[in-house]
Amino acid sequence: MGLLLGGLIAYSTNILAEPIVSEQTVTTKGEQTTTVKSPPPSAIAPQFSAGNGNDLCTVGASGAVQTQILGISVGSTFTEENCIRLKNAKTLYDMGMKVAAVSVMCQDQKVFDAMMQAGTPCPYDGKIGEEAKLAWKMHTDKTPEEENADDVESKRLKALGIIGGLFGSLLFF
Fold first, then answer.
1. Rg of the Cα trace of the chain?
2. What is the C-alpha separation between 144 and 111, in angstroms, rounded?
3. Number of CB atoms found within 10 A of residue 117's CB
4. Fewer CB within 10 Å: C terminus or N terminus of the chain?
5. Long-range CB contacts (within 8 A, 24+) of 83-92
């Protein structure tokens, strides 16, 4: 009986193990077109580094605009005058020329006024202390003029306005 049962299992396994085969014929007719599209054009604004370890007294401004037809990028730098004054004063001080360093700083109206109010007037023609104070009183026409911060800011705004105007006009293309 065991032999008969084993034979039936072996026979049924063979039947189940046979693959089912079906045949199909597929016929297609058509055309295939491949279109390669390039990435969109892009205007890249130039980078101006004013910091990041650079010992520069400049401030950078840049911008870019891209339309379907035309792309433009522009940039500019602005010199920071007070930064130059500070660097010059520090260099003079490091070379041991302390009076000259103070004189450079005194070219700024705010520093000049602060020095006078503190009772330590800015040097005048080699004179310091009370002699310098009297000399400044006699030569008021040589005191530093207050720098107009609006002039510096207006230059920046004018440059940014030009850049913005260019970009705005390109949007109409």
1. 41
2. 10
3. 9
4. N
5. 83/57, 84/57, 87/55, 87/57
CA 25 from chain centre, in angstroms, equals 64
Per-residue pLDDT of the chain (173 residues; tens, 9 = 90+): 544 444 444 444 455 556 666 677 767 787 878 776 766 677 777 666 655 556 778 777 777 777 777 777 777 777 888 889 999 999 999 999 999 999 999 999 999 999 999 999 999 988 888 999 999 999 888 888 765 555 667 767 777 777 677 666 656 65
β-pairing, 71-79 vs 58-66, is antiparallel
**In the chain, where the domains are located:** 35-81+148-173, 82-142
Whole-number Å distance between alpha carbons of 51 and 102: 26
d(CA 158, CA 162): 6
